[in-house]
Amino acid sequence: MKIPSFAVIICAVYSLLVFGYAVSDLLEADTITYDYERIDEVKKECASVLSSASALRPEFDIVYSLKEELSFVDGDWRQEVGKAPIMPFDNRDVRKNSFDASNPLNLVSFSVKDVDLAHRSRKYLSVGGFLIMGITRDASFERSGFDGKPRFQIWPGNSQLSISFEGIYTESKKNGGERVLCLLGSTILPSREPNPMDPWEWVNVSIPRYDQPPLMQDDQILLILHFPRTFTLTNRVIRGEMRSLNPKSNPKYFDEVQILSQLGKSTKYEFGSGKIVSKACDPYPFQDSLLNGGINVYKGSRFCEILEEVTRYQAFTVVPNWRCNGTDEFCCKLGPYTSGDEIKATDGDFKDVKIYVQNLKCEQKIAQENVSFARVSAVFRAVSPLENQYTAVTRSGASNMTVAAEGVWKSSSGQLCMVGCIGLVDDEGSVCNHRICLYIPISFSIKQRSIALGRFFSINKNNASYFPLSFEKLVQPRELWNHFIASHPYYSYSKIDDAGAILEKNEPFSFGTVIKKSLLQYPKLEDTEAFLVSLSLLSEDLTLQVSGVPDPFPTPKRLPRTVVQLEILSVGPLFGRYWSNGSLAEEENPYHTKAEYTEKQLLLNVSAQLTLTGKAYNNFSALSLEGLYDPHVGKMYLVGCRDVRASWKILFESMDLEAGMDCLVEVVISYPSTTARWLVNPTASISISSKRNEDDPLHFGTIKLQTSPHMYRKQWEDVLSHRAVEGIIRILTLSLAIACILSQMFYIKHNLDSAPYISLVMLGIQALGYSLPLITGAEALFKRKASESYEPSYALENNQWFHITDYAVKLLVMVSFILTLRLCQKVWKSRIRLLTRAPLELHRVPSDRRVLLTTITIHVIGYVIVLIIHSLNTSQRSLLEKTHLISTRNSHVLQGWETLLEEYVGLVQDFFLLPQFIGNFVWQIDCRPLRKLYIIGITTVRLFPHIYDYIRAPARNPYFAEDFEFANQNFDFYTKYGDIAIPVAEIILVIAIYIQQSWNYEKLRQALAVGHCKLLPLGSRMYERIPSQSVEAELVCGVHGNIAQDKERDDAE
């Protein structure tokens, strides 16, 4: 009854939890309730707003429009430095004198939560809103605070205050027409100390109470927000002010807070700044050098869709002003932006400085003569290297790091020309002194890898305050499936001859190469697929996203870890990926299947982007690659171009650069074979070398890397087939084990005298080995988990054959376990019967006590030795784990002695005959307790995994610590050496037991004599076998009947 009762309790608790969550969700959904009881108080405080209010326009969907359009996220707020700050900030999240921490951001978000239509007036509507403001250094600013619960929260690096408001919505004709919210709020403010020099003393204590800060209730907060009725280039800013209605002497008083934001996604934008746009874009197109640089740009009818996809939450990289030959101050300026200390610290290379395109509005129409015309508005926000990128994407405040822009795009030129206005824009557009030109290229090369590129110019050419600032976004193959692919982008190869020279230098003729080409296979074009489909599949196989280590493996105090990412841009004529729509797919086989093509013609042109991420390669991060791929040997021979524009101060000393790129780089990438992955570690190797002289400032030492195992697309099927093969082998080996156990049971039936001399410790070890897979779910027999080296796949988890095999293995394991227990029972009963025949001679009945103690002693000593050996190698091994451990989803990483103990259990099972060997000496046997078939068969079952592991591939991933259940090759045993040593020891143990059973104790004692010294003591009569049943029958009356009964019981059993 205990189990059902426990299940009922669990179900009840689960039901309560589900119900509790459901109720809590409902309560949270209904927590924002507004009764508008403060309407008279609102009218009093908002009298100035009501005096200038005009009659409200009738709108059908006013509730929806107010909630969507009168909200903003992550605007800016500031408070003049005074005696009454509104909230504290704890900067203890940053170390003292730290230079890698960004400045905290003052962010504010507002949302309209309720609109009351029942009590509306001619000039106002009652509305309820919620505001959350904070000071944060990272991306943990909670926008989920819109739950209607005012609160204050603080922790190191973050402070947050949420306020609930209710008030009125009005419209005014001031400032060209605006919408105004005047609201009264209530919240829980943090309490200030009386000392104006240190108002937040409770924060600055050594151990502040973040969970229980001193708070005080306040409902005298006035918030006024001004939204433009129509958002334009010169009227797009949301302004607000929040002040306390308490007197300055009141501790709840705080200095006025200024709020600044811009239009959001749901806000309607009006293109009407043609006069200001003409300052930058008349005449159109602007004569930009990019138009004459041999780059073809997009001129199709889906410019807006492509522009939105390219810029959505995507960062543009700022290009250093490497062509600038002015003063350092002039060349280091970040275009129109006012650079802070973080950007100035980059010294003009603008490393990790990003530009985000926000609030993009694009309208495309067809003009005369089928010429497409688009009007575009956007905000270009520059982000410093230390600012959190996630927060930067959502920020909406206007500052000297934002450029509001509006312009036009025409398909005749493909140029998007915009006028840019820095910071806050007035009605006359006096700060709109910048020109922005942006393009979507469709032609790519080793020197042109940008899917979008642009440039800032100063409109005043004669007195430009900065050098034209370029920005770009590198192409990613995963982005080429959208509308952009319809424009038919293409790649122009220009380094194939140079790559051919690298091929000839790195692949001289040898018999090894001939054998390699004839026996091994590498990623190649599929004969059964259409040509473009085959090219696309090949590019997937050649893509690398793995970790890598230096080759040869170094031995410093800390090993460097590198993430290797190789993105294939084009293979042959295919750029990007091919996505068949099922219409006009090519049906003919690829050309490489035709016999008349020579081997040199079968080489494939490839282009790629190689990125190395790691501390060891901070100054060498990305390479543009182009060259040849030889599918016969699985090697790429590539010319690399390294972007050295960040080193603009030394570029004038190097005359052999190509568009600011160092293309004197040779790269060779070797891929693992697709057919020998079970015999050879499937790792790729990468070699990067410079052709420059050592005294050249752009020279770098040769880089050689070996990656972690790389899995090809089709090898997921190999995992399934390999797992199926292992399943079949498990079934066969378990079936052999069951047959051996049954054979031993039949042997005991006909040899009752020898049954008591079978070691119960030996049988217990076997039973333990069979029970562990049933209890823990570990693989039976095979210690190494075949499928956990890789991420679980849907095909692997849902393969029906795998599940059938798994169930069959578990069933056979259970049968083996039950039969082993039955064998234990027979041995135990035989000893009981032996004891009943000689009740006064207990010492002559075999006992496993000494056997158990001896076995435990031996294994404890062995385990201690393993721990000692392991401790000697701990430093190097722990270093490997820290730098290269990549755990899988299903792994459970154990450390230290726990891991070793778990592995040692497998070793104990391998030496299952050790207790029988010890028992044979202790009992001085003169019989054959174990059948030869049982000894050889069970030993073969235990030997087979080691033989299989030895002939199979090495560790599939040397950086995974949990590839094995009881046998981890990264530790001190179960290595390749262990796969040889352990089977040899088991075979020696089998031979020793065979000799023990074939010779009697005295003969064995004579054989183990060295001169006059005997290794074994004199034989004892302690375990001399009791006379056989026939002799007993002659001496004792009535024994025949008992023997017959015993025999009948044995037969029944």
Automatic annotation (TrEMBL):
Pathway as given in its UniProt record: Protein modification; protein ubiquitination
Transmembrane segments: 727-748, 760-781, 801-824, 851-872
Catalysed reactions, semicolon-separated: S-ubiquitinyl-[E2 ubiquitin-conjugating enzyme]-L-cysteine + [acceptor protein]-L-lysine = [E2 ubiquitin-conjugating enzyme]-L-cysteine + N(6)-ubiquitinyl-[acceptor protein]-L-lysine
Keyword Transferase: yes
GO molecular function list: ubiquitin protein ligase activity
Topology in the lipid bilayer: Multi-pass membrane protein
Enzyme class per UniProt: transferase
EC number assigned by the record: 2.3.2.27
Subcellular locations according to the entry: Endomembrane system
Pfam families (alphabetical): DUF2921, DUF2921_N
Domain DUF2921: 42-257, 277-468, 505-703
Main location: membrane
InterPro entries: DUF2921 (IPR021319), DUF2921_N (IPR057425)
Entry GO CC: endomembrane system
Keyword terms: Membrane, Transferase, Transmembrane, Transmembrane helix, Ubl conjugation pathway
Domain SWEET-like: from-to ranges: 715-1002
Protein's name according to its UniProt entry: RING-type E3 ubiquitin transferase
Originating species: Morella rubra (Chinese bayberry)
